[in-house]
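Is this the right way to post structure tokens for a design question? Let me know if I should format differently. Anyway, here goes:
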């Protein structure tokens, strides 16, 4: 099951598990759409993998299967690639 990390690793913007706007790589590194597109050029700065839209978990399912509360914030790792 996906972790659904709660924030962007670059800017620390909140990214709720039941809302659109999050991008992830195959390792679940998580970024907001703005950072993923404008700063990272669609590539994960950690592994070099493709960033794709993170699926949303229906709100009703979050009760029994909550999103992660572990925030990963690493602005130093987010370099401008464009």
């Amino acid at each position: 099951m996906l972790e659904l990390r709660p924030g962007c690793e670059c800017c620390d913007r909140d990214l709720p598990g039941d809302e659109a706007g999050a991008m992830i790589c195959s390792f679940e590194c998580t970024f907001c759409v703005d950072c993923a597109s404008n700063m990272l050029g669609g590539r994960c700065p950690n592994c070099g993998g493709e960033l794709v839209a993170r699926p949303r978990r229906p709100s009703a399912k979050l009760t029994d299967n909550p999103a992660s509360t572990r925030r990963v914030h690493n602005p130093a790792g987010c370099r401008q690639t464009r």
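Format looks fine. Someone answered above. Worth noting: The helical segments are 33-39, 59-62. The chain has one domain: 1-68.
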